[in-house]
C-alpha cells in the first residue's frame, strides 16, 4: 500500500511545476502582435508648430506624437481650421511622398519635422502668419481624434527638442 502512494506525490509535484512554468510564459508575446495586445496606445502630442509659409498655396505642419502605451497606433488623417486638405507626407531620398498613414510604435514616437515626415496643409483659406494659432484634429486608428493647437512661427523656425 505504501508503494501505491508514492507516485501520487510525484504526480502532484509534477503538476505544480507544470503550472508554475505555464504561469511564467509570455502568453504569445513574441512582439509580432504589436498593436494587438491587451494594452492600449497612450498618446501625447508635443512640439506642434506651423512655420509661416512663404506663399499662400500651402504650409507645413510639424509635431511629435509619443506613445507610452503597450500597443502601436496609426495616424490616418488630419484636418485643420486653415486648410481645405491636409496630407500626410514622408520624405524618401529628399523627395516628398504622400502616404495613407504614419505609424506610432508602442513605447515609441512619431516625429513630424523638417526634412522628414510632415503634414502638408493645402487649399489654405488664408496664409497663416506668425503669432496666429492653427488647430489640427489628428485622427488615429485606435485612439480616435486628438485636437492640437499649433502656434505659427517664423518661416525659419525649428523646434528645439
TrEMBL record:
Listed Pfam families: PCuAC
Signal peptide: 1-20
Biased composition, class Basic and acidic residues, residue ranges: 30-43
The entry's keywords: Signal
Source organism of this protein record: Streptomyces qinglanensis
Identification of the protein by name: Copper chaperone PCu(A)C
Stored PANTHER family: BLR7088 PROTEIN, COPPER CHAPERONE PCU(A)C
InterPro entries tied to this protein: LpqE-like, Lxx211020-like, PCuAC_sf
Disordered: annotated segments: 27-55
Keyword Cell wall biogenesis/degradation attached: no
Keyword Zinc-finger (UniProt): no
Amino acid at each position: 500500500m505504501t508503494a501505491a502512494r508514492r507516485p501520487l506525490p510525484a504526480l502532484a509535484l509534477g503538476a505544480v511545476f507544470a503550472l508554475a512554468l505555464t504561469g511564467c510564459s509570455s502568453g504569445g508575446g513574441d512582439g509580432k502582435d504589436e498593436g494587438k495586445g491587451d494594452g492600449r496606445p497612450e498618446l501625447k502630442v508635443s512640439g506642434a508648430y506651423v512655420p509661416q509659409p512663404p506663399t499662400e498655396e500651402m504650409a507645413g505642419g510639424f509635431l511629435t506624437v509619443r506613445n507610452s502605451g503597450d500597443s502601436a497606433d496609426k495616424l490616418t488623417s488630419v484636418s485643420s481650421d486653415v486648410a481645405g486638405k491636409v496630407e500626410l507626407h514622408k520624405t524618401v531620398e529628399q523627395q516628398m511622398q504622400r502616404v495613407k498613414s504614419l505609424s506610432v510604435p508602442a513605447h515609441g514616437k512619431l516625429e513630424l519635422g523638417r526634412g522628414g515626415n510632415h503634414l502638408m496643409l493645402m487649399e489654405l483659406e488664408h496664409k497663416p502668419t506668425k503669432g496666429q494659432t492653427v488647430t489640427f484634429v489628428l485622427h488615429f486608428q485606435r485612439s480616435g481624434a486628438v485636437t492640437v493647437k499649433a502656434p505659427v512661427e517664423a518661416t525659419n523656425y525649428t523646434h528645439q527638442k
